[in-house]
Specification:
This is SDR family NAD(P)-dependent oxidoreductase. Belongs to the short-chain dehydrogenases/reductases (SDR) family. Keywords: Oxidoreductase. The protein contains six helices and eight strands; from the N terminus they run βαββαββαβαββαα. The protein is an alpha/beta fold and about 240 residues long.
């Protein structure tokens, strides 16, 4: 059986790193691990027997996306699973949030995911098979104060993913949404910008932001268990 090729964004930390580590140990899997800084992917070197490729990728840069897809196909000939994991957060009240900062978050969380997905669909349609795994969040289902723009980005991921799933169903392509909450990743730490309220009417929400910052890496959720869950999902069929 030919190896299946997994292409994952954002593998330097968090869910992406845990999933990449798991897949690197598996037989019959080619792994393309990406990050803005490939030096942070050295943890994969000990598993590499020619089935792992580490590539530089900033999902906000279409030229880099195009190059990653090109290099993946050149090296392995197929893209069987795309995992859109790269993402960032932003804490701040709606009124006090910095527009440029939240726009950049949308560029990563939404447009990065969109551009990555569009870049592989022609290949998957030609193959008549493929799985697209989009990391959303509980924040794509429920909303909390100080996270309005983050929620907006994840609600967008939910809606886009559900529509894509219906459009590609007859092409043998499946779409999977992952909606985690409270996992020990960098999301509430360095991967989220925080703007503490300065307007008196919003002071009540300051502690919510502080508590999330202090609780980073102490959450109940185990990212290694999440990686196993994604890998073993029945949705992936023969790709597991």
């Amino acid at each position: 059986m030919a190896n299946k090729t997994w292409l994952i964004t954002g593998t330097s930390t968090g869910f992406g790193r845990n999933l990449a580590t798991l897949l690197a140990k598996k037989p019959n899997i080619n792994l393309v691990a990406t990050a803005r800084n490939v030096d942070k992917l050295a943890y994969l070197d000990k598993f590499n027997q020619g089935q792992i490729k580490k590539l530089t990728l900033d999902v906000t840069k279409p030229a880099e996306i195009e190059e990653v897809v090109k290099q993946t196909l050149k090296s392995f000939g197929s893209i069987d699973v795309l995992v859109n994991n790269a993402g960032i957060g932003y804490f701040g009240t709606f009124e006090e949030s910095n527009r440029d900062a939240v726009k950049y978050m949308f560029d990563v969380n939404v447009w990065g995911l969109v551009d990555m997905t569009r870049s592989v669909l022609a290949t998957m349609r030609k193959q008549k098979s493929g799985v697209i795994v989009n990391f959303s969040s509980i924040g794509g289902l429920f909303s909390f104060p100080t996270l309005s723009f983050y929620h907006g980005s994840k609600y967008a991921v939910e809606g886009i993913s559900e529509a894509i799933a219906k459009e590609v169903a007859n092409s043998g392509i499946k779409v999977m949404l992952v909606e985690p909450s409270g996992f020990r990743t960098d999301w509430a730490g360095r991967s989220s910008e925080k703007v503490l309220p300065e307007i008196k009417d919003y002071e009540q929400f300051k502690q919510f932001i502080v508590a999330n910052t202090e609780g980073a890496h102490h959450e109940a959720g185990d990212p290694e268990a999440a990686a196993v869950f994604v890998h073993k999902q029945r949705t992936l069929g023969s790709l597991n």
